[in-house]
Amino acid sequence: MDDPGEIRGRIAQLKCRYESGDHALKGDLWISPDGMSALYQAKSAGFCFGVRRAVDTVYEQIDSGKTPIYTYGPIIHNEIVVRDLEKKGVRVISSREELEKLAEGIVVIRSHGVGREISSIIEERGLSMVDATCPFVKKIHRIVWEKGRAGYEVLIIGSPSHPEVEGIRGWCTGEVTVIENEQEAMSFVPKSDKPLCIVSQTTFNLKKFHKFVEIITRLRYHDCAVLNTICNATEERQTEARSIARYADTMFVIGGKHSSNTQKLYEICRKECENTFFVQAFDDLNLRLVPFRGIVGISAGASTPNILIEEVSNLCRKTILSRC
Fold first, then answer.
1. φ and ψ of 199, to 5 deg
2. What is the pLDDT of residues 261-310, one digit of tens each?
């Protein structure tokens, strides 16, 4: 067990930084009466603007009484929300083939967005399309569309299998490549002699994005338009999580296992704090893994419902801060 004086010192240091107005630590901090335990809950945890907008859009369609209602893919990568919508009659369309079989109904485009082809199919089928694409993602669609028409080759930094990246790729009008790791950045070869436009998946790791751009531009590409399209909410969430993980003895990252931004958040915290645990549902929370004393941090992905974050936070406060 760590020395009590060392624990109190670290908690006091965290408190001082928190109270000084550190821009990265704007969440909630609780400290036990004996100064030996602390809990920090990130302010940036939970639904971002785009996700909340998409979820609210589906519930608005339900309230309107119109049926049937479909979402193209799960509205967000969180099973709790998706199951609740299913109970209310919302069906998930998982592929173009399923979409082409629909004869009527409302199709809600999730925050990740879709390519031009999917939008065209919805219109051709005479279906009602409700577009809940995140405005930050919409901006990338416009960028790659315009840059492609202006004669640029497009390079997307992100996960090729992620629906957001698939949608961005679907708005490219010329040559396009997707890379997601350092090795791919090192070995990237353009498909043409056109100038290069580099964009990013909105939830990509900011540090990795800058690193990959540096590799690409340093190696051989000077005629580049580099556009950091990682959204502000992602940057804030990652910065706050990294800041508290550096102090924490234990970190809990709450969110769906299929959520890309939550996975990246977990990776960031795990790099700073070895005892980082993924919490997908309340039953996953195992406080026996938490040290008897020290600092516990809580962060959550952009698709994590606030109710789940509060459930985890309440139990942590009740259990950890009472160990006096």
1. -130, 175
2. 899 999 999 999 999 999 988 887 777 766 668 899 999 999 898 989 99
Confidence check: pLDDT of 220 > 70: no
The pTM for the full model equals: 0.84
Domains of the chain: 4-47+233-320 (3.40.1010.20), 49-133 (3.40.50.11270), 136-230 (3.40.1010.20)
Identity at 242, one-letter amino acid code: R
| Catalytic center residues | 164
pLDDT in tens, 167-204: 999 999 999 999 999 999 999 998 888 999 999 999 99
Q: What is the pLDDT of residues 155-171, one digit of tens each?
A: 999 999 999 999 999 99
Measured distance CA(161)–CA(168) in Å, rounded:
11
Backbone φ and ψ of 300, nearest 5°:
-155, 150
* 283 compared with 216, residue with greater pLDDT: 216
